[in-house]
Backbone:
């Protein structure tokens, strides 16, 4: 029985779920197939995906000081989906266009996303942040255009009356 602690699992161990249902190793192999260069067939411990993620996080080959356009332009949504749920609350109470949170999230966003969410690999992390960056740049450009044209539209609207 395991409560709130990590326990190493070896191939061939009997794993019971809720003390009643036995987990078959064929089911495990479906999701975590053994690799050719591993010691799985010899009954030695193997590295779980969580352990792989922790190992990757301890020595990332990711530039954590990189500006994050996704966090800058969409910090509320970006934070919600990147493990920084409190960014959504900041966006909700402060607003989307207030510049100080945008700048702070742009500067620290990459580091916060890396530290606050589990990633499959550094490549997965970079690919996800690149997608967010594209949308962040698009939204930022649209906001600038709207901010520029808003006074002209408002003046033409008022002059009709």
Residues:
């Amino acid at each position: 029985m395991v409560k709130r602690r990590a326990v190493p699992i070896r191939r061939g161990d009997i794993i019971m779920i809720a003390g009643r249902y036995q987990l078959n190793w064929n089911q495990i192999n479906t999701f975590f197939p053994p690799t050719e260069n591993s010691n799985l067939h010899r009954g030695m411990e193997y590295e779980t995906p969580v352990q792989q993620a922790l190992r990757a996080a301890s020595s990332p080959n990711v530039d954590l000081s990189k500006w994050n356009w996704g966090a800058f332009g969409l910090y509320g949504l970006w934070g919600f989906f990147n493990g920084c749920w409190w960014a959504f609350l900041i966006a909700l109470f402060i607003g989307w266009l207030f510049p100080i949170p945008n700048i702070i999230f742009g500067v620290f966003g990459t580091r916060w996303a890396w530290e606050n969410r589990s990633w499959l690999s550094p490549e997965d992390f970079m690919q996800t942040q690149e997608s967010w960056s594209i949308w962040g740049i698009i939204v930022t450009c649209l906001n600038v255009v709207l901010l520029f044209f808003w006074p002209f539209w408002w003046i033409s609207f008022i002059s009709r009356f």
Q: What stands out?
A: DSSP finds seven helices and two strands in the chain. Strands lie at 15-17, 21-23. The radius of gyration is 23 Å. The longest strand covers residues 15-17.
